[in-house]
Amino acid sequence: MRWSQAFIPTLRDDPADAEAASHKLLVRAGFIRQLMAGSYSLLPLGFRTCQKIERILREEMERIGAQEFQLPGLHPGEIWKQTGRWDAIGDELFRLKDRSGTDLCLAFTHEEIFTWLAREIRSYKELPQTWFHMQSKFRDEPRPKSGLLRVREFRMKDSYSLDVDDAGLEVAFRTHFDAYRRIFERCGVETTAVEASSGMMGGKESIEFMVESPAGEDWIASCASCGYAANVEKATSELAPATDDAGPGAPEKFATPGVRTIEDLAACGGGAPAERQIKTLVYRLDGELTLLLLRGDHPLSAQKLADATGTLEQTPAGAEEIRVALGADPGSLGAVGIDKLPVLADEALRGRTNLTTGANEDDFHLSGVDVERDLQVTAWHDLREVQEGEGCPACGTALQVRKTIEVAHIFKLGTTYSEVLGANFLDENGKARPIVMGSYGIGVGRTMAAVAEACHDENGLIWPVSVAPYEVVIAVLNPKKPETLEAGVRIYEALQAAGIDVLLDDRDERPGVKFKDSELVGIPWRITIGPKGLAEGKAELFRRRGARKRDIDVHKVADAVIENVMEERR
Question: Where does residue 258 rank: exposed (0-12), middle (13-18), buried (19+ CB within 10 A)?
Fold first, then answer.
């Protein structure tokens, strides 16, 4: 392709609404354009990079024996109702009706549809199977942002393993895990695999692949000593042992005028430090008013709450209904004496004594609270979000908490979908059993954005050869001189003949413009052909990563580039 004929609309300034580096650079370099909030067009450069990512995905899926499908993006609502996700997912699922009034939805994901197809499997002799496709997904994100990192329409590679038992699922899960490691290594990004919540996907276990980035929306806790890593929605930690005094024989009420926060109570006379307070939150869990108890300095993990309770809706109660139920405003609440509402307590409070909590009377608190003696706990759960510096649950070393981008998620679904949708097979004894399934997803556009986040500098993108839209650009300086353009064309044709993706910059632009554009776009290798160098039989070879340049014989530059590109492809 000649740059003079290509559509590469580079921009000098960052888009006004962009915060993430990938968002800024993919727009400025002419890879994407926003159509509306959460919806982006891939321009030719972006499409080429995504095609290369998809090629890697296909190669690695076929390497593990997966078969490619093409499934619809428009689904009958009835199948989603059978699995319960029509109601469980909430507003993120795009719902619509056809002209006959039949409920439909746009593909949020494809577990239901692949399971529906799996009903055609009859015998254990047909298993195991691994199926995959690449299809658009639609999610009505409440706050789409950060370019391709949080969108409402995106392309995903999702694959599904079908096995006779859990042992087969374990093999498929590990096979996919290894394939995903290879995929991201080939794409040029370093990932951390972490334990994760399965959320609305269901199943018993899942792992996320994360790329560390300030643009990420997920936080992970990890241990540099033993390798433990988990999303904070799933992570646990080892707390320092609590040393509590026995305290009085019963809770003692004391005045706390105007005190409404953990911090205020810690600062007031007669109060207690946050780690010796019981924080009381009031939530509606699927409509039922419920008290949640945590240590004063521990934040609630909403996902842990959802996972622990299995509820579809978890929302903070309103101030008025709290006052009706407990007799006080938030900031003066506690669970002492409460026996008509469910009380869920975090494990960090188990066995604690001589703590402080609200008295359910404005401007008063209780000290000397013994959790076992004074609280009627309905259920104990791990509800808290781990914090930086807490002990690793595996080895005790201080945990690090880092911001990351989720680029892939793999799930052990088990029989969650096959049981409901009737995807059964006959085993060797002729008995019908549900197919054991796994689900494995990678977002194509998000992977491109994650690579951009990890591979850039102040001048623009720095694509690895494996996913670069073009591997080489030939910058012809002063293309109006026939001998200069002819030399550039000869090298261009030699690279094309060798199977190199090459862009010939034959535009009538200043050298500085050509150099800035090639660096902004992030093409890994640049060959510069100019009248002065050509007169000396030289071309300049520039490596985008590291900004290394050297002069080379103009007749040898094509071979040198071919050798380097082929090496990097491997």
Answer: exposed
